[in-house]
Amino acid sequence: MKLKIACELDYQTPNNTPLIFLLRLRSGGDQTVIEEEFMVEPQVPVTEYLDLYGNYCQRLISPMGLFSIKTSAVVETQDSVEVDFNANFVLIQDLPEEALIYLLPSRYCESDKLLSKASEIIQNLSTGYEMVEAIRQWVRANIQYEYNYSTPSTSAMDTLNIQYGVCRDMSHLAIALCRSINIPTRFMVGYLHELEPMDLHAWFEAYLNGKWYVFDATQQVTTGGRVVLAYGRDAADVATMTHFGDIQLNNMLVQVERVGD
260 pLDDT band (50/70/90 cuts)? Predict the structure, then answer.
């Protein structure tokens, strides 16, 4: 599947403000970036670095007043996600070192508090994939997708208690439940074809049988057509914009459309 994605962010700042963005794509895994454009208006110097997860980060100082960030890309990605109910746990002693961090509690994913709930959900299931899928389905069935109930500080435990949230919150809860049973699980942010309403989206991946599998707690069935912007332990690692001063977002436009054959 070939997708054209675009994101436009319009801001206003009263002062020059240092900013970090995660808005550029990398080829790898199930996606190949065919072409890409990144523009800042008015033009200011932009530097780039890779964070500890391998995500592209852009640094700049915003001009005073109005400015915008515009990105677009054409990406080849998978039409569907791989499903393997026989995929099992990898023993902790056999995990690659880069997966170990995704076993630990993090700011928004208090996995050390959720073993009892996870055990209740998975009951007598035998394989790791079955357990993660059961957790995904449980979150979708028990957490109502609604705006205005969560805040940027809402954690997995908060979501479990209030039983409302958006994709970010549902992913955090699923991640925390999976980590509590020793399955490495990471937070993903990016674009999803045919998402309604269109916006940037969050989902999660679990490490089973030596590879990462895609799961989405907001969908009845996890679909393909995904373009990954960044991944990390939770939303704290993959904020699409981090600002160090006053800033106001005036408008945000996200587009995803299928192109070519």
Answer: confident
Q: Alpha-carbon torsion 112, 29, 34, 55, what sign?
A: positive
Of all residues in the chain, the percent with pLDDT exceeding 90 is 97
b/e map 199-238, b = 16+ CB within 10 Å: bbbbbbbbbbeeebbbbbbbeeebbebbbbbbbbbbbebb
Task: For the chain, list the domains and their CATH numbers.
Answer: 2-77+240-258 (2.60.40.2250), 92-223 (3.10.620.30)
Question: d(Cα 133, Cα 25) in Å, to the nearest integer?
Answer: 28
Helix (H) or strand (E) holding 185: strand 185-192
Q: Which two three-digit tokens encode residue 32?
A: 């190949």
Q: What is the mean pLDDT of residues 98-117?
A: 98
Residue located via tokens 């880069």: 98
Residue 149 has pLDDT above 70, yes or no: yes
Answer whether 78's CB lies under 8 Å from 28's CB.
no
